[in-house]
User: Fold this.
Amino acid sequence: MKNISTGSEGELLEMSSGGAEHVYRWYCGHYISKFLIGLRDRKTILGIKCSHCGRVYVPPREVCGRCYRTMDKWVDLGTEGSIYAFTVVKLPYIDPNTGKSIKVPRTDIYVKLDGADTCLMHWLDETDEKKITVGARVRAIFKESRRGTIHDIECFTQI
Amino acid sequence: MGRRAAIVGVGQTYHTSKRKDVNGQELISEAVKRALDNAVLGLRDIDAIVIGNMDHFEGINCVDGWSVDGWGAFRRPIMKVTTGGSTGGTLGSCAYHHVASGLFDVVMAIGWEKNSESDTQAAISTCADPILERDFFGGAIGPNAAQYAMYMKRYGATQEDAALVTVRDHNNALKNPHAHLRKFITVQDVMNSPMLCWPIKLLDSCPRSDGACAVIYASEDKAPKIADRPAWVHATAVSHDCVYFGDYDWETMPTLEATVSRVYKRAGITDPLKEIDVMELYLPFSTCGVAWMDHMWFCDRGEAPKLVRKGVFDMDGELPLNPSGGVLATNPIGATALIRIGEAALQVMGKAEDRQVPNVNTAMATAFGSCYWFEATILRSTKP
Amino acid sequence: MDKVAVVGVGQTKYERGKTKSFAELVYEAARGALDDAGMGLSEIDNVVTTTNDFFDGRTIACMAVAEAAGSYGRDATNVEGDGTLGAFYGLMRTLSGVYNTTMVTAHCKVSEGSPRKIFNQAFDPIYDRLLGMDAISSCALQARAYMNRFRINEEQCAKVSVKNHRNAKNNPYAHVAMDITVEDVMKSRMLAEPIKRLDTSPISDGACAIILATEKVAKKKLARKPVWVRGVAHCTDAYRLGERDLTYSFALEAAAKKAYGMAGIMDPFREINVAEVYDAFTYMELMWYEGLGFCDRGDGGKLIDSGETQMEGRLPVNPSGGVLSAHSVQVAGLARIAEAVLQLRGEAGKRQVHGARTALAHGITGICAQTHCVWILSGEEG
Assistant:
């Protein structure tokens, strides 16, 4: 409990929850699991195609929202694409995964991989916005040691 | 099937950055009391309540149950809705449907948030998929900043165009005693403010506010007895098509276009610039006040900067936007979109005090949140 | 109230540690409901999802299931609360004249979070939360208060567990189905006096969906017999446990009275043929008998003793096995509606109550069931 004295009106108190933590164990589901295993074992990015409308989604998921059908046509999208949009985060905030502040500057990008209709989100290794162009070609850089998470891709780089 | 409904009362707190003097329930009770006073009603006249906020900001589960304490409304039917930033729009819609269904006559929608109680960016970033998108998602600011980066490249818009939106909304807020930020601002002030997520700067961004808002809806039988000039609900619409931020097509903004098309069509509007008298738009960032205007039937793609520069949306322009100061001046997130509806209603009811736009018959309010979820409401002074 | 019917229902099997994601579970249930109704998604006018940010571990939890619930290209909204409340909002949207058909979904993977911590967060952060209260400890308080006042004993509560877990054997969706005895319940591990392990519901994952339609659409469809909504009401009691009389449920009595009034029910024990109630703990089923007017206040123990709420009794309660057999939070209320619908259609298989014409479905939300929602459904239009 923290005391905040406000003089003649009386004390007003504040309470902290402390380091309240909620741990979750999410199942990735069958589609995301396959996608992540593609990163881990084959260093490639997998998408999924709707046989009805032809849209290729990455990250892959079970249902094409527009057609409301299950998809089962996997597509190997490789590792290259172009920057659809980006921003450079300059003001830090608390990372909910760690409870600690994120490191800035950090460039978040939306990558349109070749052959995909949706974007994958990730980081770019360049943090000076003057050196980043919307539309620039990029390639994924994979880590040596991979565990089946989105961070098996270290980041993207402009090529 | 169904009945018509109107808004008959609006109440809100004086929004500010930290309400250290009240807890959440007390904050809610201020807005509720003001709404009841505005409509000259007592708690007994309210048949049901719907309440909303974004849970992770205050860390309270089952908020609907918790909230009854602050304003003696236990033993009533209460329901909670939440859709992130668009919660207020969802609240208004929910209260409207409570009444339109014929099951309740007078229903109160309450939106509230004590953003000061948590780290807003951290909490919002948990909306992105934890396995794939959360770590690359710069909170609420990230996607909007990225969109404007794209928009500037494509159409030659500038950061100064966005700054004009900030200047407009902040200076409007000077006439709104409830607004959080009330300071005279120039384009240069905006350009000099610290960069948050390029190209969005501090003064391009909405604040974090503590505040609450309550809006009372009544059936077509009761509304004219409660208010002299009720704000009749003519249409609502909502669109939320995606799950992942990477799915969204920012060049066509399909959810915004779908929402406005549906709401215009349901209200019989074909030329919003002419047929709507005032809009309270949920613009969380000044950049939205440029890029999003292309998708509201005001102009062709890429033409919005011209309209902004010409002052079309200023208080003395063809279509005044955000006379209240909008989201850039006040943002208690769970309440924000409901404040848009409340402010639009006050305009129609003729109760908007110093920020009243003259001769308002038709007003529109929008809501925005999560993965480009949009809602819209059209209110008129005449019955549908 | 204008006529609205439930025309389709879908459920996943309830179990712990399901490997499908939230979206995949919702799709399974929603697709199931569409197939059940013989409808395509294009015939659905709007969607109401029911979610909880704490259980899902993400704010704006409804985002994850938008596409899976069928939100693409149509109005969609979200309720945070029990599935019976989500369905109630869906009903109001169908009655408002704006939409003819509404899909309502609910999902929860209770096993992926820490349910006790999550429930602790429902308590006021300034006062009760610091006491470390959660669902089990608070309900144990209520159970003890109720049992002491009306001289209900633990064996009577145990009979509910025996009945419902046995009933669950007839329900292919149920999580925990088993043949146990009162003695088994009495010997099971004490969690918070007087609640023992076999007095509590399991941690279940799952999803459920229902489709509501206006009279015009319901009569045109006829893939299945429509089940009509005859009365619905909800009510919320005071928040603080110390401000309520925990030995009876004001909110349930108020909601039930209103719902019965809408449905024209004067004597619920005789006029309702089957009831699906939210028995998160065994004592709750006894309290809900009383709140619903199946017996007088304090006679819940006598009613379970009489056998009349067993499958072969006058008013079978929870033929599906109830929440004691499958507790996916928030989903469980919607599942009660789905089960009631199956009963009224005569499609409840081995758990069918013969000749059921009027059913009751019940859901709760909040600490010690602060909010109750009661649905009266019928195979007859009325």
User: Anything to note?
Assistant: Chain C touches chain B through 64 residues (CB under 8 Å). Chain C has a mean pLDDT of 94. The first helix of chain C runs from residue 22 to 37. Chain C is about 35% helix and 20% strand.
